[in-house]
């Protein structure tokens, strides 16, 4: 039962695109929660107006959280995955506030952005840069499109609270199998990697802060579903039918046993704690 977790940016992007239908439930809600912490990090953003790029925008979580704090900002957004852009378009169409403030939404590669130089007061890249095959090229585009004095914020995961749960499940399904690592994302848990990418991209210095947010289910059964959505994308694609049949009941059992250790509760909600890096740099 070898791990099938994506190992490269290309594989990770393909895996990401394959789970768009459950993205918000699976992990998007956690990324959205982290995005809610980003506006206060933009100390120099105009209190009225201002321009922001939601880079690798996905379904627009960073845009929506940003506009709660800066409702008059003009937003441009881009993502390389067409179904994500289509999903964001549908969200915009249903929200008059987004219709008014999102001025441009396009399918575009973050390594080859076509926005003009010095366009934005801020560029947000929320859990996107590790999907770039050439992240330094992406960092150079962030730097190029920022106005002088503009601020970039880039987020990455620092710790994965579901990983001890995943390992325990794996050991019970097949104790002889190697425990799953996350070779695409885990190298980025070291902030020095992102710092080098951003300085190679043109920024002079990078400041880091830690954001803690939960990956939640509305109750225990829903959290088990969240875990199964993640485990299926990370490891179980190469499992036998017999192993897959064990996944749900064993995951439920492990969640029960890990209450108060790796599983947390907030009222009816059940989840696990995730930590993210938020990197801030100014042009």
Keywords:
single chain, 283 residues, alpha/beta, 8-stranded mixed beta sheet, 10 helices, 8 strands, 40% helix, globular
Describe the structure.
This protein has 283 residues and is of the alpha/beta class. Helices cover 40% and strands 23% of the residues. The protein has helices at 9-17, 23-35, 61-69, 82-93, 96-101, 135-145, 163-173, 191-200, 220-234, 241-257, and strands at 51-55, 74-79, 102-107, 120-126, 146-159, 207-217, 264-266, 269-282. Strands 1, 2, 3, 4, 5, 6, 7 and 8 form an eight-stranded mixed β-sheet that branches. Helix 2 packs parallel to helix 3 (61-69). The longest helix has 17 residues, at 241-257. It is globular and about 55 Å long. 43% of the residues are buried.
Break the fold down into its secondary structure elements and pairings:
Blueprint: H1 9-17, H2 23-35, E1 51-55, H3 61-69, E2 74-79, H4 82-93, H5 96-101, E3 102-107, E4 120-126, H6 135-145, E5 146-159, H7 163-173, H8 191-200, E6 207-217, H9 220-234, H10 241-257, E7 264-266, E8 269-282
Helix pairs in contact: 2-3, 6-8, 7-10, 9-10
